[in-house]
Amino acid sequence: MALLLLAIGAFAVALSVGSVSVDWAGVMEGLKGRDLSVDYAVVFQLRLPRAATAFVVGGMLGLAGVLMQILLRNPLADPYVLGVSGGAAVAALLAILLGWHMAGISGAAAVGALASMLLVFVLARGRGDWSTTRLLLTGVVLAAGWGAVVSFILAVSPDAHVRGMLFWLMGDIRETFPGWIRLGILMASLLVAFGFARSLNLLSLGELRAESLGVNTTLLRAGLFFMAGLLTASAVTLAGAIGFVGLVVPHMVRLWGGSDHRLVLPGSVLLGGVLLVLAEAAARTIMAPNQLPVGVITAFIGVPVFLYLLQRDRAGGRA
Predict the structure, then answer these.
(1) For the segment 218-265, what is each residue's pLDDT rounded down to a tens digit?
(2) pTM of the model
């Protein structure tokens, strides 16, 4: 309930702040259909679509971060650790270099992300079962390879395209609504993961213990991999590679609300959305009328918050 109230407050802040002050009396007149003023257009055509997109993307990254940390049993795992964002970045930068429009760039990023996810799965599995260590190493190596390709594309690209490429790589929110498909992916993934919350609790305690209590760990881990990859791919195609949300948010929820995934899963969706909505509002307000990439703001927020949580965890004597 506290996170729901916080989400409402974050939307109120996002709709209120910006380079243009809003007359809410004029906005209410626009809602009644009496006067479609400039204030009405600013709120409902610019700020509300960006805030809604930021909330959906933040929720996707928060949920994907939880699933990745369970899958890899690594507290430093985030949605990008297995190279999904690298494949999306390479495809998106090539589309920008070819002069494609935004829809083509998003489509190319989706294809690159899904291709990278399938490549990691095939290479990590090999001829037998895939272990956590093999999966992690395969993803890290592939991500490093994608990073080298991204550096090469930036080096050979004309100056006219580099700025747009850098904004995409740092993460940026556009003035468009997220769409029903991506919202459906987020809600369906949350419901499916919530249905397996007990199995996720057992898997986080160890694979052998989960198997002894009747959990099909092979099928569960494969489902976690593809679900986290789909969430990450959807988020990346919508807003680029926004860092730190998927890493920091699950730890914040666990430290404040415990490790039961019946609370961690919905809490990470809500807190991830709130964090990115506030970051989006700050990105277009700090240097108004100029806008910063949202990924820069999340890094500025995520680094000190994560270090504070680590120090608090140590002071509390937790493992």
Answers:
(1) 888 888 888 988 898 888 888 888 888 888 899 889 888 888 899 999
(2) 0.86
What's the Cα-to-Cα distance from 20 to each of 13, 46, 111, 225, rounded to whole Å? 13, 11, 38, 43
Residues 272-292 pLDDT 10s = 999 999 998 888 888 777 778
* AA letter at 235: A
- CA–CA distances in Å: residue 203 to residues 187, 210, 224: 22, 5, 11
* DSSP strands (E only) in the chain: none
b/e map 243-267, b = 16+ CB within 10 Å: bbbbbbbbbbbbeeeeeebeebbbb
Burial of 183 (0-12, 13-18, 19+ CB in 10 A): middle
Q: What is the DSSP letter of 19?
A: S
2-313: CATH, from 1.20.1440.20, 2.60.40.10, 3.10.450.50, 1.10.3470.10: 1.10.3470.10
Picking from 173, 172, 166, the residue whose alpha carbon sits closest to that of residue 96 is 166
The single-letter DSSP state of residue 173 is: -
Give buried/exposed letters for 35-49 (b at 16+ CB in 10 A, else e): eebebbebbeeebbb
Please say whether the beta carbons of 204 and 259 come within 8 A. Answer: yes
Residues 6 or more apart from 74 whose CB is under 8 A from it?
A: 81, 136
Helices (H) and strands (E) in the chain, counts: 15, 0
CA distance 254 to 267: 9
Task: Name the 3-class secondary structure at 284.
Answer: coil
Are 236 and 109 in contact by the 8 Å Cβ rule? The answer is: yes
Domain ranges of the chain: 2-313
Query: C-alpha distances in angstroms, 19 versus 39, 284, 296, 303, 308?
Result: 12, 7, 19, 27, 31
Q: How many CB atoms lie within 10 A of CB 103?
A: 9
